[in-house]
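cron nightly-structures :: item 1 of 1
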Amino acid sequence: MAERFSRTGLLLGSNALEKLQNSRVAVFGVGGVGGYVVEGLARSGVGALDLIDKDVVSESNINRQIIATTETVGRSKAEVARERVLAIHPECKVQCFETFYLPETAGEFDFTRYDYVVDAIDTVTGKLMLIEAARAAGTPIISSMGAGNKLDATKFQVADIYETSICPLAKVMRKECRKRGIEHLKVVYSTEEALTPQGVTEAPDPGRRSVPGSVAWVPSVAGLIIAGEVVKDLAGLESLYE
């Protein structure tokens, strides 16, 4: 343990490493953004991770998801992520939940067990459920806004939801959070205007949004920014960022 995370300890200190080792984080969604969140947390020495995702790896994930390779196509994303975490941090206590966070599955999760929650899922309904559940439990949460159809990874910012702009998903979330009396929500969002995907000739299915374009470097940056915020908050490192 000491050697594995020794370079981190040189910057954060032994007390911070101990706090991380004693922390449990739930990551909802381990795809393009969430997979890199998990990667960053595992490599930072977080002691327990709950990984929640019902999807399986598809070939179209390979361009941007750290868990997606030719060998993992068709396998559970949560289970592949678990194997990767244990290859990095064998002492980490990892639980997989091969499910989506929905009203019918919400009872499987006790948010009071977590020291932090990461929302890296795509649906507004699911995001709001996670935010309200974390708030009811008094557990910190950070939420990822839209990363699709973007090319400029330097445009990501960390902010309260009510300080966001440009991002269409953040606009919807601001409205919905205000309606629910949610006063604060830490998010990572992009100030880049979304691009229009090229070569889309087929109309999306009724009731479904079109498939967004994505690249290797945008969701990865968003995920690592989120991981850094979680580590900072868990370890109490605000003074080091000033």
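cron nightly-structures :: done
The two ends are 28 Å apart (CA to CA).
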